[in-house]
Amino acid sequence: MDQSSGRSFMQVLCEKYSPENFPYRRGPGMGVHVPATPQGSPMKDRLNLPSVLVLNSCGITCAGDENEIAAFCAHVSELDLSDNKLEDWHEVSKIVSNVPHLEFLNLSSNPLSLSVLERRCAGSFAGVRKLVLNNSKASWETVHTILQELPDLEELFLCLNDYETVSCSPVCCQSLKLLHITDNNLQDWTEIRKLGIMFPSLDTLILANNNLTTIEESEDSLARLFPNLRSINLHKSAGLHCWEDIDKLNSFPKLEEVKLLGIPLLQSYTTEERRKLLIASRLPSIVKLNGSIVADGEREDSERFFIRYYMEFPEEEVPFRYHELVTKYGKLEPLAVVDLRPQSSVKVEVHFQDKVEEMSIRLDQTVAELKKHLKTVVQLSTSNMLLFYLDQEAPFGPEEMKYSSRALHSYGIRDGDKIYVEPRMK
């Protein structure tokens, strides 16, 4: 497809779903049948398009014949027009107004900031429930117009739009459940609180890759701003530097899920410490952290870990949560440090003729390598050397070490065991 010049929605639609590119298969939404005479009446022999149309990166600049759109797209429910050249909201309106059952619309990466969205045009979006305006540089005035005309909007995507501030809408959008506003430059919490005012029914707020700084808000105010928030994503919020900001999240009365990877506050902790400290102290009520479910057993384990983590801290540095957990579990004993790494060397007695010599041997070497090591001790060549291993607790006597390539650790050799060297009988 030539994308250097403008093309209409209908032109691209007919080309993409022509019999050559999209063979017809019977069944609803399975294929497309293009009339033999394109200039004939579309109402007479209309396209059987899929209900989900993907027309991204096709160089679309305008709608084309609205009667044809209405005839061909009556059953379409999802439309992806991302990464095209639509810069006039009037042309978008011509398309959408002729797709009566449209619920999902993706207009990402179209230069729509070049025109003003009038309310009469926005009215054509009324049935849309999910709207994607990522990288469209849509102004807040445009967003407000859309919100006023979309009474059933449930999900809104406003990523990569270079927002540094949020402009409050004159009316609240009670229907919106999910707001995806990542990769902007929203730093001040006073801007985020405006989202709570505009979207009081918000269930999911995705704020990843912003430069959010400290959460400056009282607990009561946070509860009123986001009374229904169940999930928040603060991945890579570069300005979060203190635990008090994380504590503030507990003020959201219905919060169950939090995502907090890549923030400066947590970088100095190990993965285990990071997760357990968040679960035990800062987010005691969540059921999912960074995409993983928090099981009851993990919560108790984390709370006990928290007590032990802070038990040696000075009193003035111990968080209040520590005292709450000590009341719950009592003062715990430090865990014993157990080194579970395999032993790398042992001390054994090497017996040869009437001589006994205590030696330290590496367990990662083979029997053949041990023989080379013993050559200077017993004055025998490796080919003329027989080795026998005696486990001090073994009931069956010495075991010949006959396999040259066998590693010593496979014998289970321990400190104090014995190795006997004998010359090979000729």
TrEMBL record:
Pfam families tied to this protein: Ubiquitin_2 (PF14560)
Cellular compartment(s): Cytoplasm, Cytoskeleton
Taxonomic source organism: Chauna torquata (Southern screamer)
CDD domains per the UniProt record, alphabetical: Ubl_TBCEL
Residue ranges annotated for the Ubiquitin-like domain, each copy included: 350-422
Primary role: Acts as a regulator of tubulin stability.
UniProt keyword annotation of Phosphoprotein present: yes
Gene of this entry: Tbcel
Keywords: Coiled coil, Cytoplasm, Cytoskeleton, Leucine-rich repeat, Phosphoprotein, Repeat
GO cellular component: cytoplasm; cytoskeleton
Major localisation: cytoplasm
Designated name of the protein: Tubulin-specific chaperone cofactor E-like protein
